Task: inverse folding
């Protein structure tokens, strides 16, 4: 009986060694899996950094590969006469082969009666992220991002999930 157990162990050992050797060969030849791949089910903030806007009181967490991004404040509408409340957008841009290009913008609408009564207009302009006593925040993605920013454009929904009021 001892001889039959030895005969069974050698093929099993050889199979295990072949499987391990094949895995090592594949890893060595093809390298690690694509590190840019993000899961859509959760946001890993390990390689991300925080953008904080104290003027409007919010934070976003941006992927590490968004290095060189710029945020530009732009006047959107309203006036300072009191007839229409002024509001602004913060345009998030990244460098491309042809210069800086906007990928998304966050608009801070005044959270007052004028906005509350016409909020159906606001929701058509962007997806609401949050509200505080002063502002209603919406997010708009650029409809046709530059081709060299396709990957970064695909990250915007996950970035939006990290939006947090801080004041």
Result:
């Amino acid at each position: 009986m001892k001889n039959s157990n030895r005969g069974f162990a050698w093929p099993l050992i050889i199979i295990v060694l072949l499987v391990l050797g094949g895995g090592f060969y594949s890893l060595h030849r093809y390298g690690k899996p694509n590190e840019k791949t993000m899961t859509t089910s959760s946001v890993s903030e390990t390689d991300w950094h925080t953008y904080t806007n104290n003027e409007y009181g919010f934070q976003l967490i941006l992927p590490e590969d968004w290095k060189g991004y710029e945020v530009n404040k732009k006047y959107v509408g309203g006036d300072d006469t009191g007839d229409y409340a002024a509001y602004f957008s913060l345009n998030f841009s990244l460098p491309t082969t042809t210069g800086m290009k906007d990928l998304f913008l966050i608009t801070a609408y005044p959270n007052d009666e004028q906005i509350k009564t016409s909020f159906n207009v606001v929701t058509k302009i962007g997806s609401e992220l949050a509200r505080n006593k002063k502002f209603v925040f919406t997010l708009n993605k650029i409809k046709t991002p530059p081709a060299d920013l396709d990957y970064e454009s695909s990250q915007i929904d996950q970035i939006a999930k990290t939006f947090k009021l801080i004041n």
Notes: Residues 1-32 form one domain. The chain has a mean pLDDT of 74. The first strand starts at residue 48 and ends at 53. The longest helix spans residues 2-30.
